[in-house]
Amino acid sequence: MKTIHIGTSCPYDVLIERGNLKNSGSLIAKVLSSKKAAVITDDTVGALYSETLLNSLAEAGINASVFTFPHGEQSKNLATLGNIYDFLCDAGITRSDFLIALGGGVVGDITGFAAATFLRGIQFVQIPTTLLAQVDSSVGGKTAIDIKGGKNLVGSFKQPALVICDSNTLHTLPSEELACGMAEVIKYGMIRDKALFELIESHDLDNVLSVINEIVYTCINIKRSVVEKDEFDKGERMILNFGHTLGHAIEGWHNYTDYTHGMGVAAGMCMITKRFCSAEITSRLVKCVEAYKLPASSEAPMSKLLPYCTKDKKCESDNISYIVCEEIGNAEIRRVPVAEFTRLMSEEE
Ligand code: NAD
Ligand code: GLY
Is the pTM of this model over 0.90? Predict the structure, then answer.
């Protein structure tokens, strides 16, 4: 089993191994002493994996009840959060007990926020079951829900006590969800690791699962190095947003329907690279993105995307930050007035 230690203010380990889920009870018992937990999951993941998890918890003497909500981003809201709090009260969860997030980024984000706030904070474990959640959202402690005003606008930093990644769970992921995670994986290659990029570009969506453990390990290790230096997202952590400023704008333009986050990130990375970098880097990135059945551009006119960019969380005091990778493996944060960004992005090529 591969272990990555995350040295944040509340440190923890990420355990990566095929088949880890069926051993999760004993892995959890090594770091948490309570014998009582609540598992939070969605209907799709729950149907696939909650029985294996519950059996494993029972073998380790951990008594757990399960709260299941409908899958999808539309559940990551105040209503579901309220239902989770009520469930935790009914299940008699106390401050010494813990939560387990079993699912993708939606389950991880809302469970993390529930753990951060229920009884002023209890421990939680992440068991991420999407590629996106394994390489990104389960590590680093960002938790959130969506409100009418926008995605992820209410949340907190809350590091998990343990993250358990089982790449076997990725075999049941629909291919568009695998592609969505690959957009974040390509991002890690672009911002920090040329060898990772080369590994990704030598595979495609149909055969990438054969090297997925190595990919997950490398991506989490990159995320570790970034969040250890900037846990609370004041500076360097922003490089993880490569492609996201335009990506969120494209998602917003599509009203967050029929357009995944990964598609937005992929198109956003390609568009920003095309604008600021060499034809050679752009062509490699575009080819790579297309091998994972992700878009390299957007039909949305730039004039319609820019207003979304200026509403982004990365936009502060009339300045906007965006990330450019002039070389593969090397990212630079650029901060300019919004008007300058608008001018740069609107220029005819
Ligand atoms: P998700 O949790 O909605 O999962 C995608 C779909 O896959 C869901 O329908 C789910 O039921 C299904 N699924 C999950 N695991 C499965 C499996 N093993 N087999 C079959 N189906 C499975 O979406 P996601 O892409 O994992 O996460 C997106 C969310 O993550 C967004 O809300 C985003 O804001 C958040 N996010 C958070 C961070 C962070 O740092 N906290 C980072 C990136 C994204
Ligand atoms: N997903 C971006 C971050 O964790 O900062």
Answer: yes
